[in-house]
Amino acid sequence: MSSNVAIVGVGMTRFGKREDADVKELGFEALKAALEDAPNVSPKDIEMLLTGYAWGYTATRNPTGELAEYAQLSPIPGFDVHAQCASSTAAVITGWSFIRSGFAKVVAVVGVQKMSELSGREVQRVMGQSADSSLEAPLGMTMPTAYALRAIAYMDKYGATEEDLALVRVKSSEYASRNPFAMFRQKFTTEDVMKSRPISYPLKLLDCAANADGAAAVILASEEVATKITDTPVWIKGVGLATGQQTVRGVPDLTTFTPTVEATRMAYRNAGVEPSQVQVAETHDCFTISEILDYEDMGFFPRGEGYRAIREGQTYVGGRVAVNVSGGLLGRGHPVGATGAAQIFAITRWLRGDAVGDIRVPAELGVAYTRGGVGTYGAAVVLSRRR
Amino acid sequence: MTEIEKFGHFAFIRHSGISKYVEALEQGKLTATRCRKCGSVYFPPRKFCPKCLADDMEWIEYEQAGEGRLLSYSILYLAVAGFDEKEFPAPVGVAQFPDGNRVYARIEGVAPDSLRVGMRVKLVPKALPDGRVTHVLQPA
Ligand SMILES: [Zn+2]
Q1: Which tens digit of pLDDT belongs to each residue from B66-96?
Q2: ipTM of the complex
Q3: CB–CB of B76 and A149 under 8 A?
């Protein structure tokens, strides 16, 4: 008999450059915060540990094993879950599935990344490896370029402008300035974004999320356990996963991310909800253009109208749907493996009625969506206060 | 250097089932593969046929069958492995040929501010310094 699964504790570290901690220490810091947040869950109750982590961005090869030893959780089952930037969302879905199957009742998921350990040269190589390694990466394809190609195709098709993209960063910086976990606390204007240095036209430095160090943790429990230990469980109503394309030449339509469409559609269907019911969303704004495409791919706004939504302020708190009002990847910083768990951290707190910094979002239904690679993986989780 | 290591400006892999593509570029030719079992033609070439699962490919010269169109473009400013900042700004793009095949490549012979979605382009083999080779998009 499969069980409903609830989130019973969340925690995260400050994101940014963290020279005071290594991977296992960052992971422990987030796990400790999640355990302190989870009433009546102690380390000995954890039956399984999963780590969302993107190998290659950090020297540590075995984050789950290191953290299990350091947190004195060994010998419980555990392993790393890797789906690039979607790693910890995929890890939460893996934990959900182990609880649904009856294998475990309480699973801890930690997303962690420490990117500041790599030298500039190493980061460049890893960035190159993020594209098709045989025929595209050798020509200088990088993450920003993969998204820049999307931006030009979108702007050409619908008439959006570089200023529209900049508005996404203006919103992110507004909320990040109020989020103590965020890497960038300063507010930016459209002009700041437009004047930042070019990276891959039309994307400029402030159109791009930054590499960061950080960790976030989520404690999952079966319905039987969750209803006993907490009055404020947040339920995982539906999950969705998809793969897309690693090559840019293989993308059927550059104005949409198929893994976003497919993973969120699957999650909505499993949850029995429509995108129009979603009140708060954390999406994968690795670049400003990504958030606008997410608005459309996730079903919040019709095709070609995403840029109008940001112009009209429809994705601020109080608008049609609050999107990335934690500051998002742009404002929070993007420690690849930790991002999905940080999204779930924010939505869980809002659905419980808690704040992130001083940011509150009145909502009963939310969705976290994380995209890995250059549109290679998609992972979505629909969360609700109602079972 | 293995054949595939010669492709482009920087090598990320050493072995590939489509090394013959690079050999042909060195001879100034663009090649595709055709599945001997189901007849499907692949450009860029593939070692395996996903439609019928065969691995019996014939190497043929790739005819662009008319002009390609630029689906999108960008201009690189950020130094990545294997690139010299002196090369920047460097235009790149994705083009589609009349047969539906697509390719990502650097763009030559177009001023960055003249780049437009839909512009006519063709793909041509090109030798690079140090024994390397690539394909580039040029105005058709
Ligand atoms: Zn075949």
Answers
A1: 789 999 999 999 777 667 777 789 999 999 9
A2: 0.96
A3: no
